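Homework help board

Subject: predicted structure for assignment chain

Our instructor gave us this sequence and asked us to write out the predicted structure in token form, then describe one feature. I got the tokens but I'm not sure how to describe them. Can anyone check?
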Amino acid sequence: MHQVWEPVHVSSTKDSSYYYSTYNGKDQDEVSNNKKIMILGGGPNRIGQGIEFDYCCVHASLALKKLGFETIIVNCNPETVSTDYDTSDKLYFEPLTLEDVLSIHEKEKPLGVIAQFGGQTPLNLASQLKENGVNILGTTPETIDMAEDRDLFNEMMEKLEIPMPESGMAVTIDDALEIAQRIGYPLMVRPSYVLGGRGMEVVYDDDSLKQYMAAAVGVTPDRPILIDRFLNDAMECEADAISDGENVFVPAVMEHIELAGIHSGDSACILPSKHIPVRHVQTIKEYTKKIAKEMNVRGLMNMQYAIADDKVYVLEANPRASRTVPLVSKVCNINMVKLATDIVTRELTGRPSPVKDLKDRKIPHIGVKQAVFPFNMFPEVDPILGPEMRSTGEVLGLANSYGAAIFKAEEATQTKLPTSGRVLISVSDRDKKDVVALARKYYDAGFEIVATGKTFELINSNNIPAIKIKKIKEGRPNIADALTNGELDMVINTPHGKESAHDDSYIRKTAIKMKIPYMTNIAAANAAVEGILEAEIHGTHEVKSLQEYHKAIKD
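My token output:
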């Protein structure tokens, strides 16, 4: 007979509540008979999944303690607050795998497990945990799977009469080509069950689609490639909701500064929205409530939307905590995680749902989320943003005006916007229609305009003074020389499509190397000039505590 080895749990220090497993040692894990709940953390911080989910796990642990539960966190990242000694009653420093979680569950016998606060990592385990008899608290694994299954989700949208971009699911190249023929290019393609838009691309023709499908790894009928019609020039926005299955509350709608095509984790974001018409904000809240009720979401949910041709489209539903939960909580003065924890433990505590008492409030200030990128650590990487997430963190700028919030957010990313000097403008043909208005804003703000080729001709022919500069292939002195010599204070350079995006990559790479602020899309450049004007008019921005901002919020 073969001996079956069972892991034992050893305390990392004497009298500590930290435990790790080993197959060779004495079991030091003392198990209590208290009412316990296990929280699954997010695992290692990486692109697409970081400290935002740790925030959720920590606040869930604090809320559970107040409800009288013993808290157990399973996580394996020493750089997080959830793995601090005083966050939970017990910490199991283990990887988020089925075997490890089941081993701990069997030993501790908690009343339930919360999987929705740790991002995609624990969610991917939810179905298998439930199959093994684990009580998943809150939104069911079936609902989570339904949000990923495009066919089921489309059926639900049709039933609720909510518009969605045409879509399909493909396992083979032939499937994908058939969907492309039906929907038409451009298409957004991505694997299912991933976080951070990993592997997500916009494809413009059959050849690109064939290449994508041929390179895709791990595609099975259970995990197909999701294909959606890409909405050109659409405004993207999102909403976080708290739901108990019957009552749903949406604290605010967030507006992305960059247009559709940039991953939501990389896009700068205004909260509450500033430019979305009131009727669309109401529509987004209505759609979110309908979807949360239909899916019987219990806890937190994140919805992604796009507004194109004056119509609101649903892009996707994520029935879990999202990376924007800390931002919404801080800007709107609402502890979303505590409320969600109250909801998911209702069957254990018998407490009434807190959601029906939540009301919309007037928020007089503006929050701007700005992503932080690691491009300075990778000098040879072109800092172009797209549907695949590349940021490694985010900051929040809070102020009484949109411009001031942007300026603060940029400053927090260690990108201080200049209030005078020379700005280089070089844009793609697709962006030429917007470049004159943009150049006028910077000229009126007191900047000298420096531009390349056709961009220069367009700006100059519209009576905006500009200086012409050569690209690197046109001789010297050129842009690279001007950047290296410190003659430029800001760079606005939008890529010229997939084929020629690399032509100007040296501009963006040199800007990073020289620590010169750069923008790779028109929307971000427009937002930056608002921040610059605000800084010029009002000088040093007012500093207020978070509590002072919260006091100003009215019912």
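Reply (TA_rk): Your tokens look well-formed. For the description, you could write something like this. Residues 8-137 form a domain with the Rossmann fold fold (CATH 3.40.50.20). That's the kind of observation they're looking for.
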